Amino acid sequence: MEWQLFDVDHQKADWVSIHEKICQLLIPVRTSLPSLTSEERKHRVEQLVKRQKYIIHLTSSTAQKFIFDGKHEKALPAALHALRFSTKVYGSSSVQLVPAYILLAEACIAFQGRASSAVIVPCLFYAQPEGHPGRFKVSPPVFCVGQGKRFLIDGVGNLQQASNYLSQAQWIVLRSPDCSSAFQHRLHRSFGLLYAADGNFDQALYHLANDIYLATSAFGLKSVEASGGYFHMANVFFCQNKMDIANSLYAEVTDIWHTFLVKSVQTQEQIHKLRAEKSPFTEDKEVEVSEDTMTEAQQAEAIQVLNAVLDIREKAPKQQPEETARVLHALAMLYYLFMDLSKAYEIGMKAFDLLKQLPQQESLEAIGYLLKLIDSQPSCTK
User: Fold this and answer.
1) What is the 3 state secondary structure string of 125-141?
2) Single pTM value for the model
């Protein structure tokens, strides 16, 4: 499966998106094997496959981060590279192609709405042309190429292309009885996003309910992997003006991320403590293993989702200060983990000041402790 970009603008987009990162990795992949013994050739092939798998991981994670960041134009080239190398390594019918098809579909859905597929935000954020309920203003036309075909991305065509990608993924899943729940929940989520973007909220809720069921089965009831399904379902109910249901789901999303981030902050504290206490002659492998608590995609998702929930809380006609403070606390922890200390302190103080006005102040101690942690960092500037 070969594909190419047709003009300078799209070649530049490809370079900025992913090609610059993988350019050097592509050289040995595209170099033909010299005359070697069977043992040497076997070793070279193994190394080649290992390199191709790394490229798949890099392009997939990069595409996912771009989608969460709302940079759909950059996500498409990265996702196409992921599909291309997944096909080379696993074959055209392998279940391992499902994540790449999902990334391509989500990038198209995001392009349609000018919003990240991680945050299909409530309807008021979409510009809907008069007389066309459920349809969105079309975007400027862009051409991309995949599977030897040139396709047009513009307006409704975006959703059609997304549907095509998801149909490919669904066909593979149906032919793979042992397909994991991790793959299936992502497929249902993408279908939910597709139907939500097209205004078919009943089908969107059906697929998002399946997404949540499969994600909780695979990762746990309170997992961040499941939180995305709750968030998108809340947005659908928001669009239907069913605010009681939407608010309860937003609260669930906040609670999941809040719990996750509390544990992440505790883990980081343990790492700092171990580093401070360990001898120069002590091996620090255990510290290194436990340090990576969030992927880049999770970081981008957390920023998008929590800021979206905060915006909804702050603009709601009926204020819920306790819920708003909980979102602010989660965001303060998130920025602390990123070492964006000035922002973490600013948001933490906002949560602290809000809670001080409430009769129930149990959370003040936790936020106060976080503020002390932030203040203790040498690079903190308020």
Assistant:
1) HCCCCCCCCCCCCCCCC
2) 0.78
